[in-house]
Amino acid sequence: MQIQELAQRTGVSATTIRYYESIGLLPPPERRANGYREYAEADMDRVRLVAGARSLDLPLDDIREILALRDRREAPCRVLLDQLERKAAEIRQRIVQLKRLEQELRQLHALGLSFPTDDVDGKHCVCHLVSERAERQSL
Q1: Average pLDDT estimate for 25-48
Q2: Phi and psi dihedrals of 37, rounded to 5?
Q3: Which of 87, 53, 85 has its CA nearest to residue 70?
């Protein structure tokens, strides 16, 4: 099948398929006499695995590791399970950080409402609070 059919059947754009090929996630496909790429069913399965892993926000290096195991005819299931657990833990930590940030934003907003909103120099308004935050973080 040509790249457009592969793209249609996998839901992955032709541009992305070419990118995956350029970084080695997909092997270079056979070429027709006219130079067009010719993909096999195995390529479709591989594109779907890469797309599925990317949709779970797995890094390309992790996906490369899974594919390398498959290419060596080793089951990547344990490695993938470990990667999924690690990604879930990262997300859990990020959620904690985002909740803290949300709380800080709401506090700044509430405090900022008590300041004037016409301070062009930003010395006695919410802008000053935001600037102070940046100073505290740089220490």
Answers
A1: 93
A2: -70, 145
A3: 53
